[in-house]
Each structure stands twice: as structure tokens, then as C-alpha cells.
Amino acid sequence: MEQTEPRVADNPEAGRFEVVVDGEVAGFAEYRRAGDRRSFTHTEVDPRFEGRGFGSVLVRGALDATRAAGLSVLPFCPFVRRYIERHPDYLDLVPSDQRARFGLPADEPDRPAAP
Length: 115
Description:
Layout: E1 7-11, E2 16-21, E3 24-34, E4 37-45, H1 54-68, E5 72-75, H2 78-86
Parallel strand pairs: 4-5
Antiparallel strand pairs: 1-2, 2-3, 3-4
């Protein structure tokens, strides 16, 4: 059977984003919403799906959806925090006055000037 592309969806009733592969929940990123902030608390990928990059797909989708909703991020989950460290384009989602709390740089990385 051919595998379909993973799909990331918000499940607000459960307070989590889920990555779905072939109709099955392969992993989730739990969050709490408070005002204009989304606190990510725990990320988990089912052992049957580990090692295939679904955790990164999940977190990228969750952060993209959070950005699209105009919310900021508090990365209490170590996996989410490491993802932001490795992908500094998401650093702006973490309020600058909260970055030190998570061991993140205070300043956003320099971005190339637009052509």
C-alpha cells in the first residue's frame, strides 16, 4: 500500500495538533491556549512511526498554524524548543521577553535583504 503524505490538523477539543498518516494519528503536539499565546507542553510520535521525520512535520505544521492564527508560542516542550532553535525563522513566534526563559537567543537572526 502506498503511503499518503502526512497531514497536520488542529484538534482543539483535545488541545493538540495531530499528524495523520494513512488515516492514523502518528503523533501529536499538546498545547494550552491562553489569550494570544499557545503554550506547547508535550510532543509525542507513536513508536511505529518514529524515525521518519513526522515529528518535524508535526511541529512545523503546528507552528505555521499558530503563526497564521496570529498567536505567539511558549515552547515548554523540549522538542518544540529544539525545533525553533534549529529553524530560526520561527524564533519571532516566541515573545522576545520570554526567549531567555527557554534558552533561545534574544535577537532574531539576520535575514537576507529582499531583492
